[in-house]
Amino acid sequence: MQKTVRWWMGSSVVAILIAGVAYFAHQHQRAPEPSASFPTSASVTLKGNAVQGAVLRSTDSEGRSVKLKIQAVERDSKDPQGEIYLYTVVYQNNLNPQWQNLCQPDRDHRVTAIPLSGQWDSSGNHMDNERMTFACTNSALAKCVRWGYKPWKTVQGQSLRDYHQACSRMVRADYCGTGFAHTRDGTEIDIYDRLRIQKRTPHSGMKFEAAWSPDGAVAISRTRFPETLALVKRDCPERLKYVQGKAKSSNLLSSLEHDAPKALIFNDSFVKVSQASK
Amino acid sequence: MKGKCLYGFFAASVLLVLPLIAEARLAANGENLNGVSLNGIDLNTSQTTPTATNSMIRVEGGQLVIQSAPIAQ
């Protein structure tokens, strides 16, 4: 009997040691990134790669239960500052028990998203509230972040929130700032801005299109697609300003900054022939 | 005797490992969000509504932060 007790005690001590080592390893495995912190106090904070595997529950716009899972996390290799994380997010709802990717593939075949604070309404306006948005990398919101307009940052004393918003209007060719896009997938554009985060590409063969603020275009020289012009003339004709004619190509940006003082971002695009005239 | 040793090992392991599993589950279950807005395709957002509140999810810079409620030890 005494022998049995000794066996129990001995094996328990061994088990406690093994479990202790396992616990130590577990804690260190869960914090692979320097940004991941695990305070030993009452709460646990997960960030960086540590959120991988997290399941988030919420409801969609129609009140249906939606479960989101962070399937993978990686740093964006295209971000020189290493601030942007790309999340593979899958979801499951009551209608379909299969996990499905939240995003569609982007041009690099990535199906990832960037989390952004707040949300955007149907007019494309940002609402600074306690919610958050997963912006897929094929969306205007994420493209603008990856081009350097990180809404959480300040550059030369200016918040990039408005630059990000102006960029999202520009990418979608939302001239009137109503949330209505006038572009097509795969259309090339050249972007440049007041802060020189993006610079104009010389000899791109493109021509100045428009100057942009968070509320849409403030000066439209021409539309990306000729068919759009009639809609702009109908919905926001006051925004059509042919500012390009006043400047030579070499000092175009200075001229644009002077002529469109509210503009933060500018873009060029290829001149296209109207489908109707072909 | 070997069998008894194994039982002892299991008993002690379960006692210690269970809290670990509980913590991992809590950490991985960011239930009760502030709210998540899904943005699947371009700006066509499918907005979602927050549910209750003992874990918090927020965005810091370009990354997701999940803060869980106190863990009962």
In short:
The complex is a heterodimer of chains A (278) and B (73). Chain A is of the alpha+beta class and 278 residues long. Chain A has helices spanning 2-29, 140-146, 161-172, 229-235, 252-259, and strands at residues 45-46, 55-59, 65-75, 85-93, 100-101, 113-120, 126-136, 154-155, 158-159, 189-193, 207-213, 216-220, 265-269.
Structure in words:
The complex is a heterodimer of chains A (278) and B (73). Chain A is of the alpha+beta class and 278 residues long. Helices cover 22% and strands 27% of the residues of chain A. In chain A, a hairpin with a 5-residue loop joins strand 2 (55-59) and strand 3. Chain A is elongated, with a radius of gyration of 26 Å. Chain B has 73 residues and is of the alpha+beta class. In chain B, a hairpin with a 2-residue loop joins strand 3 and strand 4. The longest helix of chain B has 27 residues, at 2-28. Chain B is elongated, with a radius of gyration of 20 Å. At the A-B interface, helix 1, strand 1, strand 2, strand 3 and strand 4 of A face helix 1, strand 1, strand 3 and strand 4 of B. Strand 7 of chain A pairs parallel with strand 1 (36-41) of chain B, so a sheet runs across the interface.
Per-chain topology:
The complex is a heterodimer of chains A (278) and B (73).
Chain A (H helix, E strand, L loop, with lengths): L1 H28 L15 E2 L8 E5 L5 E11 L9 E9 L6 E2 L11 E8 L5 E11 L3 H7 L7 E2 L2 E2 L1 H12 L16 E5 L13 E7 L2 E5 L8 H7 L16 H8 L5 E5 L9
Antiparallel strand pairs in A: 2-3, 3-4, 4-5, 6-7, 8-9, 10-13, 11-12, 11-13
Chain B lengths: L1 H27 L7 E6 L2 E3 L9 E5 L2 E5 L6
Antiparallel strand pairs in B: 1-2, 3-4
